[in-house]
Automatic annotation (TrEMBL):
Record's protein name: 3-dehydroquinate dehydratase
Gene3D superfamilies reported for this sequence: Aldolase class I (3.20.20.70)
An example Gene Ontology biological process: shikimate metabolic process
GO molecular function: 3-dehydroquinate dehydratase activity; shikimate 3-dehydrogenase (NADP+) activity
Entry superkingdom: Archaea
Protein source organism: Halobellus limi
Length: 296
């Protein structure tokens, strides 16, 4: 008998979530099956590909998506950003993106990624441009993909309810394109939690080891203060190390990949590798107050 796939918040944490960037359902299925052997616990499917690192538009039907989700007993989360990993902006409205994400849920996705500025896109340079790089190198810019416009927030809250009614969870996310210090990270995370998100995801920017250490500090702060599960991580080469470590400090999962394709996105560690780390690192969760420990 078919068993339903678990929700993301039902999985034992921390776990791996393998990113699927393939252009066709067959290719995506093949990578998902191989990822299962590498120990992937869940998947994130990129829907905004149209030929470059994500599912092509012709596969965005309920039938195609259902065939893909049914090929695994692991849960899949769907995302459809305004940009794709090839670097260009995607020419669809927020309403269309949400319609496609709801279609994915009807086809069996267990979670959708709701970008934090949906219905009120934050202004800023196009991603992957020289100007975007400058934006990320400076700290005193507002975080991208975060809005507090009351109309947009009300629509986001209604969208979260619709997705809940369809039986899936919502991960509210922001790729902030700037480095977040711990207090900034907590402020954004709390607004997403207040909107009804089941999971909060923050992707900061780390430009140095000091930034990376602040990202880990933000992870500890979020773990202490947030009521919902969260994912804390960063873009930037200094952020890669924290992707392995943050899951031990409370970040719920690590986004991984099965293999690195030429011209691909290499910040996500390989699934097999992360699982080896998760398995090897034991006995690091404190169970007693420092006062109760003999050997300090
Ligand atoms: O948003 C995220 C995280 C990500 O941006 C990363 O940096 O690992 C990659 C995306 O596939 C995923 O949806």
């Amino acid at each position: 008998m078919m068993t339903d796939r678990p929700l993301f918040t039902e999985l034992e944490q921390p776990f791996t979530c393998a990113a699927i960037y393939e252009p066709t359902v067959d290719a995506a299925t093949s990578i998902m099956k191989e990822s299962e052997f590498a120990g992937a616990d869940s998947f994130i499917l990129n829907l905004m590909g149209d030929g470059t690192q994500g599912l092509r538009e012709e596969f965005l039907t309920e039938d195609h998506l259902e065939r893909l989700f049914q090929s695994t007993s692991k849960p899949t989360m769907a995302c459809y950003y305004r940009w794709h990993f090839g670097g260009e902006s995607v020419d669809v409205t927020d309403e269309e993106r949400q319609e496609i994400l709801r279609r994915a849920v009807r086809a069996g996705a267990k979670c959708v990624d709701l970008v934090g500025d949906t219905f009120d896109p934050t202004l800023g340079p196009d991603v992957f441009t020289e100007e975007a790089k400058r934006y990320s190198l400076e700290s005193e810019r507002p975080p991208r993909e975060v809005t507090d416009d009351p109309d947009a927030v009300a629509r986001q809250e209604a969208e979260i309810e619709r997705i809940h009614e369809l039986g899936a969870e919502v991960q509210m996310s922001a790729h902030t394109r700037i480095h977040l210090d711990p207090e900034q990270a907590l402020a954004v995370a709390e607004t997403f939690q207040d909107r009804g998100a089941d999971i909060v995801k923050l992707v900061s920017v780390d430009r140095s080891w000091e930034d990376m250490l602040e990202t880990l500090e933000a992870t500890v702060l979020l773990d202490r203060e947030l009521d919902v599960p969260f994912i804390m991580m960063s873009h930037g080469e200094h952020g890669v190390l924290a992707r392995y470590i943050a899951p031990f400090l409370g970040s719920m999962l690590c986004f991984t990949q099965q293999e690195y394709v030429p011209g691909g996105f290499y910040s996500q560690p390989l699934t097999e590798n992360v699982n080896r780390v998760f398995d090897a690192v034991q006995n690091v969760t404190p169970t007693r107050d420092p006062e109760e420990v003999d050997w300090l």
